[in-house]
Amino acid sequence: MHSAEALFDKQVDPADVEAFLGRVVGDTSAWVATTMAMIGDRLGLWQALADTRATTSAELAERTGTVERYVREWLSSMAAHGYLTYDPDTGRFALPAEHVPVLAAEGPAFFGGFHHALYGLASMLGPVVEAFRHGGGVPLTAYTEDWWHGLERATSSWFDHLLPEVWLPAMPELDLALRRGADVADVGCGRGRALIRLAEAYPAGRYVGFDVHEESIAAARANAEAAGVADRISFECLDVTAGIPGDYDIITTFDVIHDAVDPLGMLRVIRSALRPDGHYVCLDINASHRLQDNTGPLSAYFYGVSVLFCLTTSLAQGGEGLGTCGFNEHTARRMCAEAGFGTVRRVDVDNPFNILYDITI
């Protein structure tokens, strides 16, 4: 270990150390704020504050069935971080109206699903540290319901709002095919929210979802029943490595390829199951193949989630381990060409999280 004095002897400017220390304090504070936001989501505190009326800690505790002393400390933390406002004259806290869509109302800007998912990822820290030491990874079966449910909530807002309203109108050929009635497969369908939304918006279609995670398939079937679209959707627990049953007009993957054990093999399987005039719709992470271009909070988030889920679950199965940023546009174009696709078109949608591709033979 080097002492601070020894480091300063190497011409380290103490002011630079102080500046970086300030940044680390801020980053650490942000982690605590995120953790508090997770708690607020889990306990329904944000939803109880969504009407934006100022409230005391006692009133909020009574409305949510929680203990006032904990609620008071939580409110203080969120006010200190600027998520809430505080009136010292009345002792009341309020959630500003512009914060409601992000923290309390499930829509395109809602981040509570990600907070819920991160709550689930926290329990994976121990197994991931062991993977650092010994290799391998953490299998899908180790992840808790909080992760899967949080991920469903996070992505459902995209499927409910962006898929029918933004993404498909930007691909008019697919929109027309779906309206006429298309055979559609979703590979890595998770809990089925994308297909359910498609079945609601385009009832003439026929839909099937494939996923290797049994619990997700069970949830997808229940979700389809609850949505009243089970008559036109089926879900199968299947590893598509050996092939996708049937052939399709449209095949979709939503943030799946970068997680795959064998991403090139999966692309080849998708290519073989696509009809000659079909379309492969691929949504994946908006990142660069150049590490130096992947900077800032969102890229740091991507790499962190990769360590805790995307990378480690692939490595747990002896996979390639692309990682969250691994299926970037450069890699996507190269792999799709190797898989036998002819055209890869980046769809013109503005999304900081993802790139949308319309891929054809």
Descriptive report:
Keywords: Methyltransferase, Transferase. One of its GO terms (biological process) is methylation. The mean pLDDT is 95. This protein has helices at 4-9, 14-42, 45-49, 57-64, 68-80, 100-103, 112-121, 125-134, 145-167, 172-180, 193-201, 214-227, 263-273, 297-316, 329-339; strands at residues 85-87, 92-94, 183-187, 206-211, 233-237, 248-254, 274-285, 343-346, 354-360. It has two domains: 4-104, Orthogonal Bundle (Arc Repressor Mutant, subunit A); 115-360, Rossmann fold (3-Layer(aba) Sandwich), CATH 3.40.50. Helix 2 packs across helix 7, helix 9 (145-167) runs parallel beside helix 11 (193-201) and helix 13 (263-273) packs across helix 15. The strands form two sheets. It has a seven-stranded mixed beta sheet, with helices on both faces. Strands 1-2 form a two-stranded antiparallel sheet. Strand 6 (248-254), helix 13 (263-273) and strand 7 (274-285) form a beta-alpha-beta unit. It has 361 residues and is α/β, with parallel strands linked by helices.
